C-alpha cells in the first residue's frame, strides 16, 4: 500500500502556467492561492521560505503550496540560477490538504538523486517547449507532463526498501551519463558543440556535467572533444586525397584553420601540413 493514495477523480490538476527563466535579481516575499513547483535547472543560490533560508542547486525541487510565503534571494554571479516554474490547482491526495503536496519533514525543498533529477528536468524542458507551441492538444500534453513531474516527486518521498542501495544506482547513472556524453561527442564532433549544449541534451547542469566527466575520465568534456577532433583530423591527413588543411579543419568542427593548426601542433608536435607531408613520404 502506497503512502499516498491517488485516484482518477482526485488527480486531475489544472495547469495554470509553465515557464523557464534566469534569476537576475532578488524576488519579493509573496504567496499564491495555487500550488507552485520550482525546479532548479542550473546554477546555485538561496531561497527564503516561511522565515527560513534554503541553499539550492541544480536538480532541487521547491514546493510552495497555497499561502506559503517565499522569495528568491541572491544568486551566484558565476553560476546564475535558471529555474523552471509551474503553477497548478484542483487536485487532492489522501493524507494531504487539498491542492497541496507536503514534502517529508514539513520541508519546502526536495533534493533529488541523479536519476530522478534527470527525469524531472527532462519533463520540465518538454513542458516549456510545449507551452511555447500552438500544437493540437497542447493543454492536455502539458497536464500529462506535469502529472509525471508530480508523480516523480511523490515516488521520491516514498521510503526506500533496504534491499535497494542508492549508491549503486548513483554509480550506475554516473557511468551512464559519461557514456552518453562520449557518444554525443563522437557523433557530433563536426558540429559546433558547447558545454551548455551537452548539458541541455542530458537535462543536467553544465557545472555538474563537467565535474562528473572529469571525475570519471580525468579530463573535461571539451578537452575530450578536442582529442576526438584531432584524432579524426590525423586520419583524414593520412589519406592520399584529403583536400586542403582548411577543409580538414572544417570537417572536424573548426572554422578557424589557424586555431586548428595551433591545436594540432600542440598535441602532436607537428603542424597538420608537415604531418601530411611526412606521412606521404613514409608511404613512398
From TrEMBL:
Q: Where is the HTH araC/xylS-type domain?
A: 179-278
Instruction: Write down the Pfam families for this protein, in alphabetical order.
Output: AraC_binding, HTH_18
Q: What is this protein called?
A: AraC-type DNA-binding protein
- Please verify whether the record's keywords include DNA-binding: yes
> Does the record bear Electron transport in its keywords?
no
Q: Which UniProt keywords apply?
A: DNA-binding, Transcription, Transcription regulation
Gene Ontology molecular function, alphabetical: DNA-binding transcription factor activity; sequence-specific DNA binding
* Gene3D superfamilies, A to Z: Homeodomain-like, Jelly Rolls
Q: Which organism is it from?
A: [Clostridium] polysaccharolyticum
* InterPro entries assigned: AraC-bd, Homeodomain-like_sf, HTH-like, HTH_AraC, HTH_AraC-typ_CS, RmlC-like_jellyroll, Tscrpt_reg_AraC-type_HTH
